[in-house]
Amino acid sequence: MTALTLQLPPHLKLTDEEFEQIVAVNQELRLELTADGELVIMSPTGGETGNRNFDLLGQLWLWNSQNNLGKAFDSSTGFKLPNGATRSPDASWLKMERWDILIPQQRKKYLPLCPDFAVELVSETDDVEDTQGKMLEYLANGLQLGWLINPKDKLIIIYRPHQAPEVLQSPTNLSGEDVLPGFILNLQPIFA
């Protein structure tokens, strides 16, 4: 099953506040808003994907707590991208200096920027091509490093600005490169 997209009439453009209200009254749904104003309803993940995502977030949290270079976020955090879309990567990170410029009111709502780092973990219900499109959207909106992780095929696609995506087959770990200095993601539990 892929995500369900709800088409809205062209004249009906949701404001940030209206989208937040829809999300608030539909808390059982995971919703995103595309740049074209379409509502995307994402299905919940299964146990294996939830466990993989928890492991990924745990590794990112540990690195971030030891280095204190920024703020890390889980899949329930919304980012209002410059193109108007509101997206929620499975895991993401923002440099501290970018977090620090946000006023308290901005921090409480969907963050009005693109994360510096984002991960999309492909679940059994995800469409790989849709997920690749989402990664390209992040990149076009300012992403500095992105990983698409497909555990089923043990495939990684790395996204960097001004470069073609790099495809890796069955790596054992991934480097956070210059964006997340010193971060190494151990893929063994994610590929297990």
From TrEMBL:
Cited Pfam families: Uma2
Can you give the residue ranges of the Putative restriction endonuclease domain?
17-187
| Keyword match Signal | no
Q: What keywords are annotated for this sequence in UniProt? A: Endonuclease, Hydrolase, Nuclease
Where is the signal peptide, in residue numbers? none
Q: What is this protein called?
A: Uma2 family endonuclease
Question: Is Hydrolase found in the keyword set?
Answer: yes
Q: One GO molecular function term?
A: endonuclease activity
What is the species listed in this Swiss-Prot or TrEMBL entry?
A: Anabaena subtropica FACHB-260
